[in-house]
Amino acid sequence: MGRISIVVALLFCALTCVAIMHAEQARDRDPAWMAPSGDAQRLNPLTSRPDVGAGGARIYRQRCSACHAEDGGGTPKAPDLTAPDVQA
Ligand code: HEC
Hints:
The protein has a domain at 1-17 and 47-88. The radius of gyration is 13 Å and the shape is flat. The protein contains five helices and no strands. The protein has helices at residues 3-23, 37-40, 50-63, 65-68, 84-87. It is an all-alpha fold. Residues 10, 13-14, 17-18, 21, 26-27, 29, 63-64, 66-68, 77-79, 81, 86 line the site of heme C.
């Protein structure tokens, strides 16, 4: 999966994640969590849209990087989004 695909995928989860963040304080991640099998098989329909990826990158920098770091590598506040288990 390319970097743009990752950014687009992050954009997809952005609204859900922000809603969760509003609902409760940050907590430790659950390393045993797995995407439901049906969802794990889904393909990103926007991989051929670099413009969408660029928009997602901008939103990521504004709304996510404070905790997950500019490169998604994580900080003490939030997990590494580039880790294979997170990508899976
Ligand atoms: C206030 C700090 C904070 C901000 C801002 C934040 N996150 Fe997070 N995020 C966390 C923490 C803490 C966790 C781990 C706890 C959890 O999974 O509920 C997490 C978990 C995640 C995960 C799951 C990672 C895993 O281990 O499976 C994803 C994906 C994610 N965030 C994406 C985003 C995106 C996209 C944004 C921006 C829209 C964002 N986060 C903004 C703190 C933050």
